[in-house]
């Protein structure tokens, strides 16, 4: 549950990131005004980043008062444990399957965040509308994280959740392909909400699943390997 809330917090930050440029950059900006406004937006984001970094340094503890998981509770830092854990992970076929699935979905999510503006422009949408698509995508992802976290908390059905994420993501990407060229604003907004709902929970679902299938190896190993795939 805590991991899902962390992913949701990351998604909220992404939604804010989609909205901030529209506050500074306008459709009728000249080249010089565009450069100035982009610099102002980047400066604001840099200030936010520094403040968040300082908050982490000041307020975050070195370690929690109690172990965050059974893996952390049972962890023993023996000599050679790091090498042994890495070798075990690299020879785990189930983890490699999860590695591939996570890389495809998370890679699609990262790519979408990069090109959503170009997609909107290519199909005749304004910059504000493209930003709205990105924000709705993130909002849908936040709802998805909550729904999937409750599902996993109650059932521990990691494989079913992962299959659901993959199926819905593939289906909704296909739906987006057919809807966006029609310039149907309402239909496009709804599609992006459900696309975010299906794609963003891949983070929490895969991380939890990775910890389960690699136990008793520390969660940092499996999570780090999965992140390298995207």
Characterization of the model:
The protein is mainly α and 230 residues long. It has helices spanning 2-24, 31-59, 70-74, 81-90, 93-122, 127-155, 158-179, 185-199, 202-214, 219-227. Helix 6 runs parallel beside helix 8. The protein starts with a helix and ends with a helix. The mean pLDDT is 77.
Q: What overall geometry do the principal axes of the alpha carbons give?
A: globular
Mean pLDDT: 77
Sheet having the most strands: none
Protein structure class: mainly alpha
Percent of residues in β-strands: under 5%
Helix content: over 70%
Q: Radius of gyration over alpha carbons?
A: 20 Å
**DSSP strand count:** 0
State the end-to-end distance: 23 Å
Write the layout of secondary structure elements.
Blueprint: H1 2-24, H2 31-59, H3 70-74, H4 81-90, H5 93-122, H6 127-155, H7 158-179, H8 185-199, H9 202-214, H10 219-227
Helix pairs in contact: 1-2, 1-6, 5-6, 5-9, 5-10, 6-8, 7-8, 7-9, 9-10
Describe what is shown at a glance.
By secondary structure, this protein is mainly α. The chain has helices spanning 2-24, 31-59, 70-74, 81-90, 93-122, 127-155, 158-179, 185-199, 202-214, 219-227.
Looking at this protein, list some descriptive labels.
230 residues, mainly alpha, 10 helices
